[in-house]
């Protein structure tokens, strides 16, 4: 326990406390400065009155500091609560991310399984296609005798279709040419209209300018 004699406003006081001598001197000097500050502002005050006012001022500072501390403590607790909530949200996001990763891995595995199944089906289809081609060749060989009689009719039908297709192609090319010419004419007409609009606007501006130039003379004539 520390013990020290301090001087406050010219009076010695013996202080004892758990704190060390340096701290007790610091507190005493602080109080002494407060008392002297009050006396410097009003030298008519007694030592007792100045000491009482100093005690009131110091108490006021203490309460304000205490209030500020409580406010800071409240803000700290609020921030701590918000921090805990953010941590919880982060944990939820990380957990959801892990679940999505697991779901993605499951989907990728399902895709790989489907690819393997597709390859297996393609192998089966290839085998079936080869079998069908083999059977088709056999059927063609069996039907060649009957089909020879119909080849001539089919050839004539194919020739007629080719002629009709060629005619349609020519008509289509002709329509494209006409459409191109119409687009060109429309574009030319558009520019002509824009040119006429510009000339009309220029003429209106010119007319307004001429009227403004003549207006003073017209007013002079009216005054006469």
From TrEMBL:
Its main location: cytoplasm. The keyword Coiled coil applies. It is found in: Cytoplasm. It holds the Pfam family ZapA. Keywords: Cell cycle, Cell division, Coiled coil, Cytoplasm, Septation. The keyword Cell division applies. Residues 69-178 form a coiled coil. Homodimer. Interacts with FtsZ. Activator of cell division through the inhibition of FtsZ GTPase activity, therefore promoting FtsZ assembly into bundles of protofilaments necessary for the formation of the division Z ring. It is recruited early at mid-cell but it is not essential for cell division. This is Cell division protein ZapA. It comes from Clostridium yunnanense. The lineage of its organism: Bacteria, Bacillati, Bacillota, Clostridia, Eubacteriales. The gene is zapA.
